[in-house]
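Predict the 3D structure for this chain.
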Amino acid sequence: MSILARYFRLSESNTSVRTELVAGVTTFLTMAYIIFVQPAVLSGAMFETPTGMDFGAVTTATCLAAALATAVMGLAARYPIALAPGMGQNFFFVFTAIPAAAAVGAPEPWAAALGAVFVAGVLFLVISLVGLREKLMDAVSPNLKHGIAVGIGLFIAFIGLRNAQLVLVDPGTAVSMNPHLGSPDVIVFFVGFVVATVLHARKVRGSIVLGVASSLALTLLLRSLLPLLPDAVSNSEVVTGSLLVTQFAPAHGIVALPPSMGPTFLQMDLATAVSAAMIPIVIIFLFMDVFDTMGTLIGVGEQAGLLRDGKLPRVKRAMLADAFGTVAGAALGTSTVTSYIESATGVEEGGKTGLTALVVAALFIAALFFYPIVAMVGSYPPITAPALVLVGAMMVRNVTRIDWTDYTEGVPAFLTIIGIPFFYSIADGIALGLITYPVIKSLGRGASHVRWGMWVLAVVLLLYFVFVRSRI
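Done. Predicted structure below.
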């Protein structure tokens, strides 16, 4: 038996090196978008409003931070969970943390925002080392944990449908279905989704990767055919407004040297970050990371069958890996690093151990040198959208494990399920369930049925929303 098989206990987990490799590739493909989205957000290029952060430096920092944190998760916690700078946290970084730092006169507002992320990461490490997060996580009801998994499944499926352009923003109804089912974006999504689903139903290993590959192949074919289409078709609103035309960037090469990280490396402004005006920003970064991580660990752990009696073994190590990632990411020059729910795609491909995470870490490093290829996949969301929707469907099956006969358990779980996708936030959806659970449970069944940790979570979250979140 190989060293890898022994260290990660592959036979004990009923998996193999090949399965873990495929799972790692799958997870990486579904989260590779962050390599390009992150620098576009933090530099301000996405909004045509420069923040002062260098695009190339953030790209390198993002890959290195993701690789370091994911490797620690794989080696220390031995879980198939990947980490990278979080979506949501990066927008908060740009639209709230940087303006707050500018308001207090920080010389480089983005550096002060990085400092706030760093301080939040250190606090994260402290509460993880003392075991507080583990106790809070263990206090969560098993039914709420099932609800979190279901809610996250709906959430990532919704993101996949948005990325596929099948769901569009509608000013009248918030969202609506794209009436142009013949749009190139929708076609690319449906072909990849059908391929992945059919292969998965036939229990073909690598089905999700093959679905993504089929989407990529069709994308390249459609792009090459655009010049050959009749003018009436190529100039139509459906074609010209599609992401295939406006976003997809074909690769013009294979290998490229990674950009320098110098402009952002160790540039945190800690003095401004710990000022009174920035403390609320630090607290919010901490809360977002804590509850996003909690949700992801529970959701992926549930999906992979890693929970034992409702608890996640080695959870302290997993939380320390997450906290380490945030500290390292801020030092390298990127926003909060957190566990990625896209890890569920690799789990669905059979990944069960830290070897899956190590594969993801290696691919983040490789991405620095194969930038053109990864950029091509990451530039066009419909390519990876099938993976998100299929995995979302798989995660929703946990709804059958909720005790719906007990309303004091079922209702808080239901609020969590609908809160995560409706609020477009894992953290906010979980907060809704955690705040309502002890109230409903104690009034319906008696206070003795609620663990003290649940009351702590509910009170802290309520104070956070009343006194901090409402003032953002």
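The chain has one domain: 3-471.
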